[in-house]
Automatic annotation (TrEMBL), chain A:
The keyword Transcription applies. Residues 85-379 form the DNA-directed RNA polymerase RpoA/D/Rpb3-type domain. Belongs to the archaeal Rpo3/eukaryotic RPB3 RNA polymerase subunit family. This is DNA-directed RNA polymerase RpoA/D/Rpb3-type domain-containing protein. GO terms for cellular component: DNA-directed RNA polymerase complex. Keywords: DNA-directed RNA polymerase, Transcription. It comes from Eruca vesicaria subsp. sativa. The keyword Transcription applies. It holds the Pfam family RNA_pol_A_bac. It comes from the Eukaryota.
From TrEMBL, chain B:
The keyword Nucleus applies. This is DNA-directed RNA polymerase RBP11-like dimerisation domain-containing protein. It is found in: Nucleus. PANTHER family: DNA-DIRECTED RNA POLYMERASE I,II,III (PTHR13946), GENOME ASSEMBLY, CHROMOSOME: A05 (PTHR13946:SF38). HAMAP family: RNApol_arch_Rpo11. SUPFAM superfamilies: RBP11-like subunits of RNA polymerase (SSF55257). Residues 12-82 form the DNA-directed RNA polymerase RBP11-like dimerisation domain.
Length: 381, 129
């Protein structure tokens, strides 16, 4: 056989992907593998994400995220948003991001929490340590961005400490008394407890020393002038007092992060799940359809009339699915239904403890991740 | 901190102090997406140590630059996430306020209607028999 010059040129420029009958992009079965986790009866499959840029190079597909694509594809859908709770959909992003945001929300977004409790008197049933611990866990409705961290060498001042006073006494010959967070009284001028100065050297002209050194009153600051600092909820039970018992203490709240102690976590929970996708592989009719509808506890399926007395199951509310796998327990149904999760669609929920609204918390979390990147870049250059 | 060799800067490990899975996993993702990278991974040497080791091997570019680019891109993506999120929230708030106003208007209208009917009923002096 003679190889002509033309053949050579053809061979040189030949690319199989240019042929008209070679499909472009990933074949459908791989596409499903790439984008969906499938919950099988015993275990989920295809859980891993192919994140390597060259993963699909033999299918002629570039797997790298280009910033351009991301800019076009990324979407956020807010489902609900109140002062304390928020649900939104994050679409077109990898789990690495969703998880980073979740981890930062829980352990790295700062908030204010009681760190020091100075107990002057406690004759209640609850011992001092436990009482102090309970105080620490009370969520405080104060914007942490207005405060600074109290470092080891700092003195507590109006920029880094919030002081609360608690003084309750249950009078004799009365019924038991509940001590609630509404009994906490904010002291904008700082601590009222005097420090022991050791000897009578202090003259009456110097201001007596307390446990904080505020240079001005916090309620003279514009941020707190009209909204005094309180706990997030005023009905949290701190202790119960019997007649004749008394608690007198001062609680100092400082800024911190959840990594140090969970009391500084600004969220009750922050969590996400992938969007469930329920697929009927074959038509599910009549008895099976009714069975399917009955078996699902979350009412995912619905029945549709096909006319002449026949019925067909439809997937009405896939979002409700909790992946409980009840519908694939029986073998015959397992062949009909496939439970998938969309790998890049996250249903994200944030419950704030009250220091900041959840949408602000999320933006703060993203900012913290940005700062981390910045720090690494600065370290490397 | 970088641990690499003087002769070949395309392979190196980096120790990031005071970081954990949060950043390392995201950075690993970004590195893997970069076509210049042949291998990227991270490990935490010990749970009580506050650091992660990130390993980067490239096809020839300096590993340090590639890691820097990954962080840079991660930062840009975060910025984009933030702007999209803020926009979505403000749109939601507007929509929410609108719906709420509409609902209240409807409720008010209904109440007025009811009131009118009641008045009408009162004014119609119906004789009971
Ligand atoms: S997994 Fe559970 S919730 Fe989801 S469709 Fe099946 S039965 Fe319903």
């Amino acid at each position: 056989m003679v190889v002509t010059e033309e053949d050579k040129i053809f061979a040189k420029n030949f690319n199989i992907n240019d042929l008209p009958d070679v499909p472009a992009g990933l074949p459908p079965h791989l596409k499903v593998k790439q984008n969906r986790v499938v919950s099988k009866k015993d275990a989920p499959v295809d859980t891993a994400n192919a994140i390597y840029s060259g993963s699909h190079v033999f299918s002629g597909v570039d797997n790298s995220v280009k910033l351009g694509n991301f800019y076009e594809d990324f979407k956020v859908d807010v489902i609900s948003c109140t002062e304390t709770d928020m649900e939104f959909d994050m679409i077109g992003i990898d789990a690495a991001f969703a998880n980073a945001f979740r981890r930062i929300l829980i352990s790295e977004v700062p908030s204010m929490a009681i760190e020091k409790v100075l107990i002057a008197n406690n004759t209640s049933l609850i011992i001092d340590e436990v009482l102090a611990h309970r105080m620490g866990l009370i969520p405080i409705a104060a914007d942490p961005r207005l405060f600074e961290y109290l470092t080891e060498n700092d003195v507590p001042n109006e920029k880094n400490t919030i002081v609360f006073k608690l003084h309750v006494e249950c009078p004799k010959r009365q019924s038991r008394l509940q001590v609630l967070t509404k009994d906490l009284e904010w002291l904008p001028n700082g601590s009222e407890f005097l420090k022991e100065t050791g000897g009578s050297t202090s003259t009456s002209t110097t201001k007596p020393k307390t446990y904080t050194s505020f240079s001005c009153s916090q309620d003279s600051l514009p941020e707190f002038a009209d909204n005094p600092i309180t706990p997030s909820y005023l009905d949290i039970l701190i202790a119960k007092l019997s007649p004749g018992q008394e608690i007198e203490l001062e609680a100092h709240a400082v800024k911190g992060i959840g990594k140090t102690h969970a009391k500084w976590s600004p969220v009750g929970t922050a969590w996400y799940r992938m969007l469930p996708e329920v697929v009927l592989l074959k038509e599910v009719v009549d008895e099976n359809a009714e069975r399917l509808v009955k078996v699902c506890p979350m009412n995912v399926f619905d029945i549709e009339d096909m006319g002449n007395g026949r019925k067909r199951a439809t997937v009405a509310q896939p979002r409700n699915c909790t992946l409980c796998k009840e519908c694939i327990r029986d073998n015959d149904l397992a062949d009909l239904v496939e439970l998938r999760s969309v790998k890049n669609h996250f249903i994200f929920k944030i419950e704030s403890t009250g220091s900041l609204p959840p949408d602000v918390l999320f933006t703060e979390a993203v900012k913290i991740l940005e700062d981390k990147c910045e720090r690494v870049i600065a370290d490397l250059s | 901190m970088e641990h690499g060799s003087f002769t070949n800067d395309s392979h190196a490990s980096f120790t990031l102090a005071e970081e954990d899975h949060t950043l390392a996993n995201a950075v690993r993702f970004m590195l893997n997406q970069d076509p210049r990278v042949t291998l990227a991974g991270y490990s935490i040497p010990h749970p009580s140590l506050e650091c992660v080791n990130v390993r980067v091997q490239t096809t020839g570019d300096p590993a340090r630059e590639v890691l820097k680019d990954a962080c840079q891109e991660l930062m840009l993506m975060n910025r984009h996430v933030r702007s999209v999120f803020d926009k979505a929230v403000s749109e939601f708030m507007v929509e929410y306020a609108r719906l709420k106003a509409e609902k209240e208007k409807k409720k008010k209208a209904e109440e007025e209607e009811l009131q009118k009917q009641r008045e009408l009923l009162d004014s119609m002096d119906i004789e009971s028999n």
